[in-house]
Amino acid sequence: MNLLHHFQRITEGWSDAFTQPRTAIRACSLAGALLCGVGRRTITRALGFLDKEHVDWSADYRVFSRSPWQGEDLFNPMMTEAIARHADTGPLVMAWDDTIVPRTGRQVPGTAWRWDPMSPPFHVNFIRGQRYLLGALVLPLYLQNATSSPRTLPVRFVECPGVRKPGRKAGSIELAQYREQKKKHTLSVCFVEQARRMRQTLDEAGLAGRDLLCALDGSYNNKTVWKAQRERTRIIARTRKDAKLCFPSTERGRAYARETWTPLSVYEDPSRPWTTVRAFFGGQWRDIRFKEVGPVLWRSAGRNKKLRLIVLAPTPYRVSQNGRKYYRQESFLLTDDLTSAVGVLIQAYLDRYQIEFNHRDEKSVLGVGQAQVWSDKSTPRVPEFIVAAYSALLLAGLAAYGPTRTKEYRELPKWRRKAKRPSCQDLVTLLRQQYSRMNDPLSSPKQMILTAAA
Q1: What's the confidence (pLDDT) of residue 445?
Q2: Same domain, yes or no, for 207 and 281?
Q3: Are residues 38 and 123 in the same domain?
Q4: Does any domain span residue 447?
Q5: Looking at the domain assignment, is residue 366 inside a domain?
Q6: Strand pairing of 212-216 and 233-238?
Q7: What is the mean pLDDT of each run of 10 residues along the chain (454 residues)?
Q8: Long-range Cβ contacts of 23-27 (<8 Å, 24+ apart)
Q9: DSSP letter, residue 149
């Protein structure tokens, strides 16, 4: 079976998410058209790819504006298959991160002005768009092939809109209500809720015996996340080097020790020796130096929750022989997993970086957020649907050809001869080629070019 057959097999598993079979068939065809359409990833271009420019298009738009489907029902079958194929041992590691999908319209539901993370450090810029929380399952492909980098498979893409601020003439009561609602609509609260739902989904899938380890960025290292009640769900997050930590007190009636210290002091302390662990990082297995301290307490966030501090020494490496060095600074991690081996925790933190490639593929290659929809249901659903199709494409590539780049893919250009795994653009190109070989005039290369030029 080639890439197209596996992609169609995976998307056909979405049938339970829709109430009518005809809606499921329409959604599966739109999934392939949104990925393979040339030009901007809009529903209009997808309909042009399917040669529906001269027929009634309203039913295709109603898939997003009226059909009562949930995004979780699209991701769950793919997550179950990915776990069975590529993550069948050890704790289930998930990387979580937020992203902003640009939408310039002022009347688009859920949009607001937000800080642009791509702005330079000397000048803060703002961007208008929708805020989403991405949860991706880490697939440790290096355990199957010693030279394969891990993949992160998106299994959640949830909109996290904020609360609109009242106008200047708002009264004190309205402002007080706004402050209370603002606390309930933060990214940290959204992550806690989604982590609980993910744990429930795994239990229903027969994975109650597998622990869930969530790898987070430093913005989620706060009291909202640490104080939340979680069952069989652990967290590892980057922390600040000047965070005030302490040991549990040995005095009776006192929880915290009197002396406080920072993670940076542990890094600079010569009396604490460095230990080495083997981990896959930067395309190959490397020796990572670390220091471990625990259990520790963090008064301002964790309260009485016991944590482990892991300090990683900088491990510089180059992608090419004359390229720049990466990872030149130390890292400080906090986790509430007190039992797992430190190598497992460090590997989970290193694998989390793969989620950044998901962000790049979703925005630069697949154009998430380019669809011109404005209804309350369609606005958050279309980006989620495209990310689900992108996840199906990644899983289909692994099922068809494995984690490495094989001869089935298009030959690489001269400036990219050393690529070891297929990129998202490689998968999209191959999917387009296989669509065109179906002897279907709707997906011919000529039809793709005419649609894109229209």
Answers
A1: 57
A2: no
A3: yes
A4: no
A5: yes
A6: parallel
A7: 93 93 93 90 89 87 92 94 90 95 88 89 91 96 88 95 86 87 91 95 93 94 90 94 91 85 94 94 89 90 86 79 75 93 94 94 92 90 96 95 90 82 92 81 57 52
A8: 23/63, 23/67, 23/69, 26/59, 26/60, 26/63, 27/63, 27/67, 27/69, 27/385
A9: P
**Domain range for 278:** 236-339
Residues 197, 270: one domain?
no
Residue 96 belongs to a domain: yes
366 touches 424 (CB < 8 A): yes
Answer yes or no: do 61 and 188 share one domain: yes
Q: What is the pLDDT of residue 348?
A: 95
Beta strand extents in 193-340 (DSSP E only)? 212-216, 233-238, 245-248, 256-261, 275-281, 284-296, 307-312, 317-318, 325-326, 331-335
Boundary residue ending a domain (312, 339, 366):
339
* Same domain, yes or no: 311 and 355: no
Q: Find tokens 């797992």 and name the residue.
A: 340
pTM for the model stands at 0.92
Residues 249 and 350 in one domain: no
Q: What is the pLDDT of residue 440?
A: 58
Task: Determine the distance from the C-alpha atom of residue 418 to the mean position of all C-alpha atoms in its chain, rounded to a whole number.
Answer: 26
CB atoms near residue 167 (< 10 Å)? 7
Is 288 in a helix, a strand, or coil?
Answer: strand
Q: Looking at the structure, do residues 400 and 335 belong to the same domain, yes or no?
A: no
User: Which secondary structure element, helix H or strand E, spans residue 93, and what is its range?
Assistant: strand 92-102
Q: Which two tokens stand for residue 185?
A: 């609509």
Q: What is the pLDDT of residue 48?
A: 87
Considering the domain architecture, whether residues 71 and 91 belong to the same structural domain is answered as: yes
Residue 451 counted as domain residue: no
- Residue finishing a domain among 285, 317, 339: 339
The DSSP annotation for 186-232 comes to SHHHHHHHHHHHHHHHHHHTT-TTS-EEEEE-GGG-SHHHHTS--SS
Burial of 90 (0-12, 13-18, 19+ CB in 10 A): middle
Report how many domains make up the chain: 2
Which residues, at least 6 apart from 407, have a Cβ–Cβ distance to it below 8 Å? none
Q: What is the pLDDT of residue 272?
A: 93
DSSP reduced 3-state for 372:
coil
User: What pLDDT score was predicted for residue 197?
Assistant: 95
